[in-house]
Each structure stands twice: as structure tokens, then as C-alpha cells.
Amino acid sequence: MADRLLLAAIVVFGVPAALVAYISVVEGVLMRLIPFKQQPRARPWLWLLPALAFLLVFLVYPTLNTLALSLQDAQSEHFVGLANYAYVLTDGTMLMALRNNAIWLVLFTLLTVAFGLLIAVLTDRVSYESAAKAVIFLPMAISFVAAGVIWKFMYDYRPPGVPQTGTVNAVLTGLFPGFEPQAWLINPPWNNVALIVAAVWVWTGFCMVILSAGLKGISTEVLEAARVDGANEWQVFWRIIVPLLGSTIAVVATTMIITALKAFDIVYVMTNGNFDTEVIANRMYKEMFNARDFGRASAIAVILLLAIIPVMLLNLKRFREQEAIR
Amino acid sequence: MPGTPRAIHLSAPLVALTLLLSACAGGGTTGPAAAPTTAAGAAATTGAAVGGAPTRAAAAATSAPAAATSAPAAGGATPSAARTPAATTGAAAGATPAATSAAAAPAAPSAPLEKIGGTVTVLGTWGGSEQDSFLAMVKPFEDQTGVTVQYEGTRDLNAILTTRVQGGNPPDVAGLPGPGQMAEFARAGKLIDLSQVLDMNAMRQQYSEDWITLGTVDGKPVGIFIKAAVKGSIWYNPKEFSKVSGGTPPKNWNDLMALSEKIANSGTAPWCIGLASGAASGWPGTDWLEDIFLRQAGPDKYDQWWQGKIAWTSPEVKQAWQTWGQIVANDKMVFGGRQGMLATNFQDAGNVLFTSPPRCYMMHQGSFITDFFVKANPNLKPVDDFNFFPFPDIDPQYSGSIEAAGDLFGMFKDTPQARALIKYLTTPEAQTIWVKRGGAISPNKQVSLDAYPDPISKELAQTLTSAKIVRFDASDLMPEAMNNAFWKAILDYVQSPNNLDSILANLDKVQQDAYKH
Question: Which of A 271-300 lie inside 8 A of B, CB atoms?
């Protein structure tokens, strides 16, 4: 225990100290060596060198290594070309996982952004705004695995005739006598929706916070002018707020799309991918740790990367456009 | 934001790269821990079969649930040869099995253990009451040697163990889901050869050759069995069962089905089945199939089956599934129907045997389930409130068959503390502790029958030694990928029994890959 505390102390104080020392060295020594005119060019690169080194070692190298592994066989002994990719794109379970991720992509993004926007707009002019937002944001603070466990209990199923232990079934059978308890997590295809609901519960707060910030950035004069001109709230929302929030919504939507493609914890904890709820990240985990097939797991990782690249490029394009406006 | 266009030029790709790569981090936090750690899980014990353990467990009973959870991460850990096997005196524990008469002996090992201090990390699937039992089992070891046993339990043993071994940070000692997966770890060079740790002659005196062989890979003992179980018992509530069965338990499958149909027609489901088990859901169904297959097709075909030598689509295998389908495909036969089976955890499924009125009359499960019965209903008494009859014969030429399983442990890091612990765990004294607490059967021949706390466990222990045909749990013997596919196939079959052919074809595909490496 003591040596762990020591290690923690070293990291907490040592890392900033090392960085400060490094910057001082750069400024003090290197800047003397570089002619004054070149300094503004050199400085950013030198300051960023530690961070770039970290990125190289912990992000760039593993990505390239994964690419290499995906072209090799299960134990990474022989080169097999695109065989792993062929498997990933033709195997029944993988196709089902891809289909499920597509459902997640559409439904999860729509629901989180819609609810986030709705709550941001509704709480905007209320006195208890902070309290309401805090409550909605709270699920983001718990671990996603914990959220999965919570919702697993909520969806618990007992056969009809015995007391229901799952909240959802208990409430519904209580309110509507004659309602048969449903095995929410077991019956495809609605079990996917059940999982997505749990994920939406976690992530709506995130969307709400960002959209709310964007909302506050809209000048009140525009809105007042519109209202004075006779627009009702509905028109104000759709014709003014949403267009002005365009870029913010795009940011939130792309983040949610990436989250949907990455979805793992919720699925792993609640159904472990059984009953047609597989997702790509769960398949990657299973190939890696259960089947110990490194080639296939890497191929799945690369495919996930490829799926996310267009989203990232979109984000980048918008980012550049925003910068260009300034 | 202030900055020259050059700054933006610099930052944009960096931001993109970071976001891109972090986005592809893929999967959130894996939280296998979340899954309930059912104690039964930690089956895998690397046991270099120490000596002949009393062939209590003629069949290495591997606790099936163990397979389900944590993957023993066979990978990374290179048994650090750095530590020279110091003359760990711990030898006492394992080495002198003969000397100590296990008969109702207290936990103290025969020869005094040396005080070596330090810690040993143990990874297993046990949680709850099974965890308590394991900790009780190692308490005398801790007291005598001064070694602290740090036990960590997880349902997802496979994944955790794989990750840790791959990452070069294995536990010192870990449960292994089954001999099949133990072999995978051993061939990757991750398990320590226990012939250097244990006195193999002494082991042979305490354990039957079967148990030792099950823990041996390519001639090297790498696994020890610290606990065994008999599978395929059918549990019932004698008070209720006698009302519907008319006295004697069914002797063969046809009688069993006739009885089940009779009960079903009277309005209550005859069977309770619970298939849910976190990451390992489906394993109770594999036990059913193995029991049916063993009695229907015989021990030789059974061996070919787990070795991957006959296809899943072959007629014998298909017939076993269809036989099981006589019960599970019919919603009236099982309490809660198919949905209930899929949603109910194996630990809880038997509780409705004891409600009034009971919602089912029979449950097929391994011998460790008694622990869970008593946990849920503390005033249940063995024999009076719950009892078992053996799985009935199907083909008379294979009558007298039983399926067994066991908890396999292996050593990943060669440290004096780990050696001492492994040696201790094989001793009859250690195993007697758990046996006395209930829910365990010891494969060690020197654990006396008197140590068993109730007539039921005594009877089960005797069954293990006296059965004519004993086989180890097939799914535990299969490679990991095949095992997982088997569990999933069970769930798929229960969900849609009509898809049997496509399910079996899929299993064949997995079989092609799984047995390659």
C-alpha cells in the first residue's frame, strides 16, 4: 500500500514538475540556439513534443500494430491477407451485430439529441433550471456498467403469477391488471430498444448540457423580435432556435453517433450480446478474450475505425468552416 | 480564439487524430465484475494432479459455472522463473498426504508449515457463500504460514484471466474454467509445471489416475482439483414430490417423461430450469445435453464429441438435442415457459420447488446447488426437504453413467507463497474444510466419508467413486470458443427450437475453427 501511495505521489507531483522543467529547458536553451525569426515557428512544435511523443507511442503505434495484426492469423503467426475481414463481413453473427449498431446509430442519436434539445429548451426559462438539469445530468456521473446493472434489475422478469421483481414489470402489472409481464431483454427485436433506452437514460444529460450552452448563446433580441412579430412558440423553436443551433446540434449528433458505434458496457452487462443484441464492440471483446483470436479482433477494430472516420471528417470540416468564419 | 492560421493548421489534424483514435477506443469500460460472481464458477484450478486423490471424483467434476466466468487469462504471465523455487517448506501441506488421516481431521495439515509470510493472489469465480467457504479453507494456511491470501472473485473468469496473463500481470494462482482451457494456457506456456511443486508420488496415493490425467497436459501436471461435483442429479422436494409421483423416482427416461406429462396435465409445470448466468448464460443447458448424450450414445461417442471428432450435425448429437426438446420446447413442461428459463438465474430457479404451492417438482442441477437452496431458504433440511435421484438411464447398455465436474486450479507465477498454497490445497485437511461446510465433494481419496455433513453429500460422494461409467463435463473439456458457442446454442435453441438444424450447422462452423489451435 505504501509503495502505491509513493507511486501516486511521484506521478501527481513529478509529471507536472517534469513538464515544467522541460519547458524551461526549451525556452532557456533551445530558443537561444534558434534564430529569432524562426522561433514562432519552432516553439509550438517543441512545446508539443512530449504530448506528440505520447500520442505516437500510445495511439499511433497501436493503431498501426492493430492494422498489421488484422492481416495475420489468430495467434499472429502467419500472414493471411484479408481473410479476417472476409469473416467479419460475412459471418452471420457479425452481420447481426452490424445491423444492431445501425439501429443504435439511428435510434440512440435521435433520442438523445431530441430529448436533450427538448429538456434544454424547456428548462431554459424556468426558475428551477439548475436543479432540473442536475437531475437529468446525474446518470452521466455513474459508470456505464453501473447503469447497465441498474437497468438489468429494472427489466427483470418473473413468470406471471409470481411477484415481479423488475421495476418496469412491477409497475406495469400493478397499473394495468391483466398485463402480462414481459421479458424485455429476451425478446428480439424489442430487446434492442430496451438496451437503447438504458443508454439514452445515461447520455441525454450530456446532450442537454451542450445544447443548453448553445441555446444560451442565441441572443434574446432575435427571439423577442420574432415573438413580437407574432410567431408562436412552435415556430420560434423550429424556425429560429433549431437553425441557429445547427452547428451545436451537429457536434452533439456526431458525438452520439460515435458513442452508438462504440456501445459496449450496456450490452455486455445486460445481455452479453445474447438474444440478437450483439454489437460490434462486444464481438471484438469476445474474439479477443474468449476465442483469443487476435486477427479477427483486430479486423473488427479496424472496421470500427473505418466506420467512424467519415463522422470525424465531417466534424473536422465543420470545425474548419467555423474557424474560417472568425 | 487568438492564433494565426498556422496554429489552426497545426491543431486541427491533431484534434482530429486524437478524437479519431479515442473514438475508436472501442467499447467502454469492461465491467465484467458486474456480473454476479457465483461461487460455483471458479472451477479452474491448476492442479498438477497430486498423487492419486481418493477417486472420490472418478470423473473430474469441474464446476460448470466456473467455465462461464472470467477467462483465466492464460496469456501474458510468464511464470517468472526469476524466483528460484526456494526450498519452500510448505511442502508439508502437499507432500505428506499419506501420513495424515483425513478422517474428520481438523484443518491443520499433517506437517507444520513454515512461516514464510508474504502474499499470494488468487483469482477465482466464487462469490457469496462459495467464496466464504474458500476463505475458510485457506484460513489455517494463512495462520500457519503467515501468508496473506488475496482472493478476487469474478464471474467473467475467462476474460479477466486472459487479459491479465496477456498483460504480464497474472494472479499467482487462479481457477481455470476447465481442462480444455487449461490445456490452451499450458500449451501457450503460461502455466507452471507442478511436478516440481508437488510430490507426485504422494499425489498418486491420494488421487485416482483419472483426476491426475485430467490435470495433465502433454505429460506435465499443471492443474489440481480442489473440489468436485456430481452433475446430473435431479432435485426434488420429497414432501410435494411424493404427492404426484407415487413413491419411487423414475428409473428411465420414458418413465420420467411420462411422469412429467402427468404433472403437466394436472396444471403445474413439472420442471424448473434456470439458464441465466451472466456472461456464461446457457451452461446449465449444456449439462442437460451432456447427461442425455452420455446415456443415449454412450461414453465412447461422448469422448469423440468433446474431442471434436464428430460433427454437431451428426444424428447422435441431434437426437440428444431433440430429446431435451421434449422438455424445453414445450412451454407447459417448465415453470415460466421458455422465457422464464432464459430469464431466471440458475441459482434462483430451484426456489419455487419449496413454495406452497410449489410451482415445479423437479430440477436438474449439479451437487453444488444445495448451497443455494439453503441460502435462499435457511430452514431447509437435506433429505426431509430436498433430495435427489440420479438422472435416469436412457439406453440400458449405458446404465450407471454419471457426469462429474471439478474446480481446477493452476499456478501462473512461481513464488514460494504460491507453491505453498498449491501444495496446501491438495491436502485432505484443506479439502475436508470445504466438504464439512457443504456443497463440495473432494476428489482426494483420503477425505473420509464422515466429513460430509449430511446424507445427501455422502451419497453423492459415494456415487462419484462407485459409478460404472464416469465422464467429465464435456463442455469444460472443449476449447474455449467451442464452449462459448455451446452455451449460446443452448439459449438459441430454447428461444427457437425449430431452428435446431441451423444452430447445429453453426456449431459445426465454430468446431472447425476452435479445434485448430
Answer: 272, 274-275, 280-282, 284-286, 288-293
Residue A205: give the domain boundaries.
Answer: 84-325
Distance from CA of B238 to the nearest CA of A (A): 22
- Take residue B34 and report the three cell numbers written for it: 458486474
Number of Cα atoms under 13 Å in the Cβ half of residue B36: 18
Residue where one domain finishes, among candidates A44, A69, A94: A69
Give B25's contacts in chain A (Cβ within 8 Å).
262
Query: Which positions in chain B touch A146 (Cβ < 8 Å)?
Result: 31, 34
Strands (E), B192-342: 216-217, 220-221, 224-230, 233-236, 271-272
C-beta of residue B313 within 8 angstroms of C-beta of residue B505: yes
The residue type at B394? I
Do A269 and A293 sit in the same domain of this protein?
A: yes
Yes or no: say if B37 and B125 are a contact pair by the CB < 8 Å rule: yes
Residue A74 in any domain: the answer is no
A312 within 8 A of B23, measured Cβ to Cβ: yes
Q: Give the B window 49-88 contacts with A, CB below 8 Å.
A: 71, 73, 75
- The distance of B329 to chain A (nearest Cα, Å) reads 16
Predicted confidence (pLDDT) per residue in B356-394, tens digit: 889 999 999 988 888 888 888 899 988 889 999 999 999
Chain A residue at shortest CA distance from B167: A289
Q: How far is B296 from chain A (nearest CA, A)?
A: 29
Q: Is A304 within 8 Å of chain B by CB?
A: yes
Encode pLDDT of A208-266 as tens digits: 999 999 999 998 899 899 989 988 888 889 988 999 998 899 989 999 999 999 999 99
DSSP one-letter string for A180-219: PP--TTTSTTHHHHHHHHHHHHHHHHHHHHHHHHHHHTS-
